[in-house]
Amino acid sequence: DARVTQTPRDKVTEMGQEVTMRCQPILGHNTVFWYRQTMMQGLELLAYFRNRAPLDDSGMPKDRFSAEMPDATLATLKIQPSEPRDSAVYFCASGQDRGRAFFGQGTRLTVV
Amino acid sequence: SQELEQSPQSLIVQEGKNLTINCTSSKTLYGLYWYKQKYGEGLIFLMMLQKGGEEKSHEKITAKLDEKKQQSSLHITASQPSHAGIYLCGADQGAQKLVFGQGTRLTINP
User: Fold this and answer.
1) Which of A23, B3, B6, B102: disulfide with A75, CB 3.0–4.6 Å?
2) What is the pLDDT of residues B7-24, one digit of tens each?
3) ∠B35-B96-A96 over CA atoms, to 5°?
């Protein structure tokens, strides 16, 4: 079965370090989403791309977060420098046109 | 995003009972999606509704989208322990921008 793959599954890092999360969307999907989930805020949309072009990243703290799609098989979310408040589960999802979004298993980030 | 409001935020029901979760938007919805999740794990797709008045069912779960396309309900009949989890409604706000409500945490007591 086709699925969205996220790496790493878990990441523990020290405050101030750079963190890179990777996502391999389902082949043929033209839309990629990045979400952050916490108990307090729920599932927040950070950014999304269509055909590799960023459409909206208004949900992302610009000073430390960046999202890119270097090619159609890879999406990255970087945090530099990381802070304890960035601790959350980060999800990537992909979709095609107005079809449903397929979610990866998430990256659980802990910043100490 | 608080543009999508889910209610209730949490729900505890006795096994075998029926229940309803609501999702309300302040804007017209281009598409409404229901997902289920165990916290911290990936979201499992349940149903997608796009047309006003549309209703879909899968096993014991039924979802409806009202005529004005601003509210949806998810109804579970004869709940079972396997229905426990977090239910999230997601909305396409246009240009495929998919945002979610806060979620409803469902507990089923035996």
Assistant:
1) A23
2) 999 999 999 999 999 999
3) 75
